Amino acid sequence: MADELIQKLKQLIEQDLQTAPAAAPIGQLVERLQQNKSIEQAIQINTGDAVGFQALVQEGGVANMGIHLHGWEEEKLTQVLTAFLKSLQPTGTPHNLPRSGAVQFVGRANELHQLHTQLQQNNCLAITAIQGMGGIGKTELALQYAIAHLSDYPGGICWLRALEPDIGTQIVNFARSQLDLTPPDGLELPDQVAYCWRNWHPGNVLIVLDNVIDYEAIVSYLPPQDSRFKVLLTSRLYLGRSLHYLQLDVLPPEAALDLLRAIAGEERINHQLTEAQQLAEWLGYLPLGLELTGRYLASKPDLDLITLQQRLNDKRLAARALVRQESMTATHESVAAAFELSWQDSKMSDAARQLGYLLCLFALAPIHWQWVEQCLPDWDAEDLEDCRDLGLVNRSLLQRVEPGIYKLHQLIREFLQTKLTQFEQADEFKRSLCRVMVAIAQTLPQTPTKAQIQTLTPALPHLQEVATALKVWISDDSLIWPYVGLSRFYEGQGAYAQSLPWHKKCCEVVQERLGEEHPAVATSLNNLAALYASQGRYREAEPLYIQALDLSRQILGEEHPDVASSLNNLAGLYDSQGRYSEAEPLYIQALDLRRQILGEEHPAVATSLNNLAGLYYSQGRYREAEPLYLEALNILFNRLGENHPNTQTVWQNFVTFIRQVIESGQTHILSDHPAVQQVLTQLQSEGDSSSDRPSP
Q1: Which of 102, 169, 591, 624 could form a disulfide with 608 if both were Cys (CB 3.0 to 4.6 A apart)?
Q2: Cα–Cα distances in Å, from 92 out to 2, 87, 205?
Q3: In sequence order, which ranges of 283-390 are alpha helices (DSSP H)?
Q4: Burial readout 547-565 (b: 16 or more C-beta within 10 A, e: otherwise)
Q5: What percent of the chain stands above pLDDT 90?
Q6: d(CA 94, CA 155)
């Protein structure tokens, strides 16, 4: 009703200005208001028998504003005229924005621009939600946007605290204090809110609802479908598809450093730049963690960043540097408290929390969802997805990186690991993760292909986590596999320096867990020796091979495949050094033992035949080498097929052998075996066809 009266009053004044020259001094009234005179000083209402009302324009003078309002109630007239005159007074955008505690707002220019674009692009009520994890800076971004765009919302910026239950009351109180709107008596709260929306000041309006956790609880209080109203929400939750979202991520690394510089001092951070970069990375570039830590540094001018990092490493989220100090204006009491709000949400299921416990056991790296499903084979797949999507992702506790791949922020991982100590099934989850990672490690053969290495690459950090932090929960019979998988991963790419620590760690762990006299110890010693041998570090390899051979004989007896493997490995070492007389008896022993234990047609027998043939070839003993190569090829053709990598390796060795015989001028010593004749024909007719495949 008041806005209608104001409009009528404007029309009447315009009429009076056209018909009554005495009304011209109203300009003096406006001038007085612009000089910050209060409305109470400027207005004089005539009562009694007066047929109009007047406005004081100077000491002792009045401006006649017409007689058309005769008969109006004095209270109503005063209210209407006061509102009208206030509309003439340039008071700026009415708002109730909270005070920003940001020392410097950095790294969010793109987000501010995107946010403004989203809010302006609709032809009706525009609603945009800033979503992100606790401590990511959602509230501060909304506040900085509102401050930067005050002039774009002359109708007012109303800041509402969504966690407080009285959203309607907050709206009405804003309208009363900032807009001089007073809903009529007797209206229920929803009707009071509706009255405020209908009579809101003209111009674009921004309504901010900070920290929304239940969209349905606030939707009835939202403004009408009017394009001049813009609604901005902040939430840790995904509130539904009907809203536009601005997903807020952590700060870029350089912006994180800028924030530390602004709070702790530019010179101080630049002087310890490497340590500051490590600190920012440890904090995961989370604005809240950076602000708390920066202010902690500012309060301790003699504290160096190395010492601070040590304190964080020791106390993790309980460190004082991650807890708000009394003088600070940070939104949350601590980083842990920011996450606790999501974790203690009453609508979050216990199953979702259990999923969080499992996920925090993975390394700080992207997690493939198939691994999670393998860790929880008894869980219903759809229920598990709901725990992930509705329980964790929608609460910004877990991030979807790409289809089927998810990750935890490092500080959320720290938070969940703290909670994990109270979870009764923690050990069961740890064993389950170890089982899954061991199975992946076992997929890598001794000489992995490029495709196999690529398969293991995403699992690598999690395999490392199992081999270090979770090794206690690896079963005894699988203990060596995480280390074997890691060492093969690097060794298969020629990265021997990276492979070596995992070989050594394997020896250490199995001896500590299983004792000195265990087959796994012999295996780990053999593997370490093989790495040394591949690098030409023969003096370091030999005692390990001998120790492994002795241990295998002692534990397993003379007639065991592992003993044959140790004999073969030691023989290969001597062969590589040209110590043929020492290598030959060992190769022969390994061959005989494998024939005895595994049978004449086993691929391992073919391996021994190939190795002994190679020894004879190296010594120029071609007549003895040829039948061994042929026997090995016959076994491999029959058992593995011509396309198997082992078959192709022996075939290439055989072709090289034939070529050497030709070059030595001793072709006459070669047999008329079809395989020999095939190679001879190829080499003679094509020059060099060593890459051709053999005929079975």
Answers
A1: 591
A2: 21, 11, 13
A3: 287-299, 305-315, 335-343, 350-359, 369-375, 381-386
A4: bbbebbbeeeeeebbbbbb
A5: 73
A6: 7
First to last CA, the chain: 100
What CA–CA distance (Å, rounded) separates 653 from 161?
Answer: 77
Q: Which band of pLDDT confidence, cut at 50, 70 and 90, is reported for residue 346? A: confident
Q: Say if CB 634 and CB 655 are below 8 A apart.
A: no
What pLDDT is attached to residue 125?
Answer: 86
For residue 46, pLDDT over 70 is answered with no
Pairing of the two strands 399-402 and 405-407: antiparallel
φ, ψ for residue 46, nearest 5 deg: -90, 130
How is residue 402 written in tokens? Answer: 């790409």
**What are 662-665's contacts with CB under 8 Å, separation 24+?**
664/620, 664/622
From CA 288, how far away is CA 334, in angstroms rounded? 8
Amino acid at 49: D
Rounded distance between C-alpha atoms, residue 649 and residue 427, angstroms: 45
User: For residue 690, what pLDDT is reported?
Assistant: 47
SS3 of 32, please?
helix
Burial letters for 163-178: b for 16+ Cβ neighbours within 10 Å, e otherwise? eeeebbebbbebbeeb
CA distance linking residue 112 with residue 232, whole number of Å: 12
174 near 163, Cβ under 8 Å?
no
Q: What is the dihedral of CA 25, 26, 32, 36, to 10 degrees?
A: -170
Residue 164 backbone zone (phi > 0: left; psi -120 to 50: alpha; other: beta)? beta
* H or E element, residue 128: strand 126-131
- Nearest-5° Cα angle at 403, 234 to 382: 85
Measured distance CA(531)–CA(386) in Å, rounded: 46
Residue 240, sorted as left (phi over 0), alpha (psi -120 to 50) or beta, turns out to be: left
The Cβ of residue 504 has, within 10 Å, a number of other Cβ atoms equal to: 15
Measured distance CA(608)–CA(612) in Å, rounded? 6
pLDDT at residue 372 is higher than 60: yes
User: pLDDT tens digits, residue range 584-624?
Assistant: 999 999 999 999 999 999 999 999 999 999 999 999 999 99
Looking at residue 391, the DSSP 8-state letter turns out to be I
Question: DSSP letters of 1-21?
Answer: -HHHHHHHHHHHHHHHHHH-G
Task: Centre a 10 Å sphere on the Cβ of residue 336 and count the other Cβ atoms it contains.
Answer: 21
Half-sphere exposure of 364 (CA within 13 A, CB side): 13
Nearest partner of 45 among 8, 82, 86, 7, judged by Cα: 82
Query: Residue 589 has what DSSP assignment?
Result: H
CA distance 478 to 436: 11
Residue 322 CB neighbours (<10 A): 26
- 246 within 8 A of 130, measured Cβ to Cβ: yes
**Taking residues 135-164, what's their average pLDDT?**
93
Cα separations in angstroms, 479 against 521, 564, 691: 11, 23, 40
| Pairwise CA distance, residues 23 & 588, whole Å | 124
Q: What is the pTM of this model?
A: 0.74
pLDDT for 40: 41
Task: Answer with the residue of higher pLDDT: 38 or 481.
Answer: 481
Contact 432, 393 (CB under 8 A): no
The encoded tokens of residue 579 equal: 């110590």
